[in-house]
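Model: You mentioned two targets. I'll fold them one after the other.
Researcher: Yes, keep them separate.
Model: Target one:
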Amino acid sequence: MDLNIGDVIKMKKPHPCGANEWEILRTGMDFRLKCVGCGHQVMVSRKLVEKNFRGIVKKA
C-alpha cells in the first residue's frame, strides 16, 4: 500500500463528527491520522488502516 504523508484517505467507518476522510500526518508501524471534519488526531496501527481503507481522496 502506497500511502504518503499529506494524503487524504477515506475510511470505512465515519468519525463520530460524521466525516470519514482522514489526513495522514505520520506513517510507519502506526499511522497518525487527522480527521478532516473536526481536526481530532488519532494513532492507528497499520493493520487497522489497511483493513478499513476505502480509497485515496487527494494525493499530497
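Model: Target two:
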Amino acid sequence: MKPYFLFAALLLWGSCNNPKTIEPTTAAQTIFRVSSIQDKIANLQDAQNKEVLVVAHRGDWRHAPENSLQAIQNCIDMGVDMVEIDIRETKDGHLVLMHDETIDRTTNGKGHVKDWTLDSLKTLRLKDGLGVPTAHSIPTLEEALLTTKDKILVNLDKSYNIFDKCYEVVKTTGTLDQVIIKGAKTREAVEKEFGAYLDKVYFMPIIRLKPGSKGVVDDYIKHRKPVALEFIIPRDTVGLGTYFNDIRKKGTGVWVNSLWPHLSGGHDDERAAVDINTYQWYLDNHVDIIQTDRPGLLLEFLRSKKLHH
C-alpha cells in the first residue's frame, strides 16, 4: 500500500474508532495554497487587484480566545490575508493585546488594563467565546508581531493614541511593511498628530458614509492617497458600487466590515451564516477588503468565486 493511501486509511480508521475525535476547525478543513506575505502586500497596494483581501476581526476568535496568539496562528494557517488586533498599555508601559479597557470580559481577572503590570497580567488566563478560562495568556504586541512576521498583514486597532510606542515595537520586530493603523480623522488632523509616521507605515482613514464624507475622501485621495479607506455603511445606498469603483480606479482600496448590520447596510456575517450569498453584495459594490467575524465562511465564498487563493 502506498504511503499516502495508508495515511488516509489510518485517518479514516481513527475518526471512526475514536469517540473523542472532534470536528476540525475551519483552518484545517481544506488545504489551499497560502499566498506569501509578498503577495499579500502587493495585493494591498494594488487597489485594482481582482482578489479580495480577508481580514479576521480579533483573529479566529470562534476557535481560540480573541486577540490570542492561537487566534492569530489559526488565521495564518487558513490563509487569511490580515488579522485585526487591539492594543492597550499596561501600568508599567508595556503593550498588550486587549480589546476592552478592562480585562473583565476576556480573562479570569478584573479591572482596567492600565492598572495592571505586565507580569501580573501574564498570570491570568484568556477566556473563550463562552467565557470559559483557557490555557492561553494575554500576548504582548511584540509576541503577536513576531507570530505574524513574514506571514500575514496586521491591522493595529485602538493604537492611534499610543502609536509612537507601537511604532517602536513594529520597527524592532521588522514588521513595518505588514502593519496598518487607522483613525477616524481628517487628513489635516492626522498629518498634525501623526505626520512623523505617515511615510513609514500604512495609514487607513475611517469614513462614515454621511453628508460631507465625500469631501473628506476626496481630500485624502488628492493630497495623501491612502492604501485603503475603511467605510462605515449604516444603510445600503444607491450608487455605492459606482462610487467605490471610482475610488479603486484612483488607486485606493475599499475596506468594509461585515461584522454587524449597521456597518454594512445589513449585509453582515450572521446573515451570511444563513445565506452565504449575502457576501455577493460586497463584490457587486466593488469592495476589495472585507473585515469579518467568520473568516472561514468568507474564504469559502471567495474561493468558490476564484477571488482568493
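Researcher: Noted. Anything on target two?
Model: The first helix runs from residue 3 to 17.
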